[in-house]
Amino acid sequence: MHKYADKYKYGRIAKTSFNGLGYAGNNLKEFQTISDYLNEAINNSKMERLPEEGKELLKILLKDPYEFGQKIFISNTADQTYYEIPIFKFIKPEDFFKIFLELGHIGKSVVIGALEKRYEFEETASKLYEEIYFVTSLKLLISKRISEKKGKVSGYILEEFLPDFTKIENKLKSLGADRNKENLK
Questions:
Q1: What are the residue ranges in the chain where pLDDT is below 70?
Q2: Which of 3, 19, 35, 111 is buried most, with the most CB atoms less than 10 Å from its CB?
Q3: Would you call 136 exposed, middle or buried from its count of C-beta atoms within 10 A (0-12, 13-18, 19+)?
Q4: What is the structure's pLDDT at 11?
Q5: pTM of the model
Q6: 3-state class of 17 per DSSP?
C-alpha cells in the first residue's frame, strides 16, 4: 500500500464490517486474502488518479482561489482533501505558474496564504516533502519573471511574494535535512 493512499477519501474494504453489519468469516484466510487484494486495487486506483486530480485542482485554482486553498491545507472546513497528500508532486510547476499569473493580486495573496498554511504544521508538512521540486521550481519561475518584468508593476507584485516562497522552500528543505538525519541513525 502506498504511504498516503489510505488517507485519501475514497474508501477501503473494512476488515470486519460494512455499514454496521459484521462480515461472516472475516477471520478466514481466504477472506483476508480477498480483502487485502481489493484494498490494494483500490489504493492503486487512487494513486493512478492523482495526476488527473492535480489537473482538476488547477482548474479550481483558475476558477476560485479560495476553494483551491481550502482543499490544500488543514482547517475546519469540510473539504481539505489534499492537506497531507503531496498533490503538487503531480502538477507541473509551469502549469501552476501560468494560472497563478492570471490571478489578480487578491487571488495571488489567497494562494500564497494557502500554501503557507499548507506547510505550517510540521506533522503534516513532513508528509509533503515530496513537493520540494515543485516549490523550488515555482520559486525559480517567479525569480525569472521578476527579472523579466523589472521596473514594471507586475514585477513588483511578484517580488512581494518571493520571500513567502523562500520561507516555504526553506521549511521543506529543513524537513529534508531532518529526514536525512533520521536515515543516518
A1: 1-15, 177-185
A2: 111
A3: middle
A4: 56
A5: 0.77
A6: strand
